[in-house]
Amino acid sequence: MGFSKAELARRADEARPVIERLANAGCRFVQMEMPDINGQLRGKLLPLANGLSPSGIGIGTVILTFKGGGGMCFSAPLCGTPQTGYPKMVAIPDFSTAIALPWKRDVAAVLCDYYMEDGSLCALSPRHMLRMAEAELAKLDYSSRMALEYELYIVHENDELMRQGKFADLQSFQRGLDVWSLSKAPSFEDLAKEFMTRCEAAGIPIETFHTEFGHGMFEYSFEPQGGLKAADDSARAKLYMRQLCAERGLAPCYMAAKFFSRGEAFSGNTYSGCHHNFSLARRSENAFWDDSAQDLSRIAHQAAAGILETMPAFNIIYRPWVNSYRRIDYHLGAPENASWGKEHHFAAIRVVHGSAPAKLTRFEHRVPGADVNPYLSIASILKGTLRGIRGNLSPPPFATGDVLEEKNGARLARSMPEAIELFRKSPAAAEEFGAAFVEHLAIVKEEEWKDFATAVASPEAALGKGPVTDWEFARYFNFA
Known about the structure:
There is one protein chain. The chain is α+β, with helices and mostly antiparallel strands. The chain has two domains: about 5-120, Ubiquitin-like (UB roll) (Roll); about 135-475, Glutamine synthetase/guanido kinase, catalytic domain (Creatine Kinase, Chain A, domain 2, 2-Layer Sandwich). Helices cover about 35% and strands about 20% of the residues. It is built from 16 helices and 17 strands. Helix 12 runs antiparallel to helix 14. The relative contact order is 0.13. Residues about 260-270 have low confidence and may be disordered.
């Protein structure tokens, strides 16, 4: 029972220089960052040595059962029952992620992994699943390269309106719709520079920050990293953006659909996407490019086939919330089927070669929204890739025109209940994520839908025709 003395001693040896480094940087406290089932970083603030203890700190298993709005899904088996007393697990710091946070002066941060009290890794942890997928790729002598692009809205905080749930009435941070603007008012430059400076200090490489086509809409993107680092960076950057905005009387919103109402006049981008730029590397070479053929490699075709084949079953991961299903309109770049095409922005996978194909060739997975859990979405892409390679699969033909009319890809679920059922019944999902995780996620998401269906009259009609509901704003404005 518990961790062995040898394991605790090894962890203590690993922790010692980390604690010394952070203490020398002036850190007295540590922000323990704990990913929940949705990819949000929750956690605790502790004195430095306590937070970096080799034996970790107790955390309720309920952290992997959170629904939108911060509610917990007590019907999930992992949560336990009143009879079992709602057991805890152990959050163990990943010392390789320990960093000083200069803007907090005396606070460090560290990401955590979850272990059961018998010392075994929590099999339902999304971060653990992503790490295992990367390990499987490494056995084939490949590594992942992943860069995410986040679109978000930024609004001015108004405590009275927010307490009343009137999130739709919050004033946008900027006026005007124009994208890539350097003159949109008020200027976003100071906010962008501070965000990039903080991310740089945290070891998070931001590639670009710019305005998007919407009132108060922005986009930031990351430089390519390995899959786990990309997910860690994404989760941390979202937290640090929230903290930065709060300091300035602002609030970011990562909901997939914020102002969308079908049939209304178009007034800028209404969707917040999170495109996943993905390729494989073999040592320092881009494995998606075949230099002799001057085109996509065979391994790239296999990867595409596996990702496309699993996309319908994994859609509940790419579109995890009730609100996510408003963001389905391929004419606005939110794919409706599992298609792919060269430089095709309406397909689910856009093949990009760029000006230097040997370096830049990649897939842009366009299905996920900004509300996605990056640990699970990246793991899904890697697991699809592994299935394609191992099965020597071939993808469908490229989409060259209308992606729906050409029917080269399977249709993606248009509702949350349908997506849950496809995931629950999918042999591929059970094989790749394990039957226990499939059922766990299905239960959590099923309860999310039931909460919506109970609160909103005619839920399917509300999502299809009506504006974003107060329930969605209350549930996702701060939690997507």
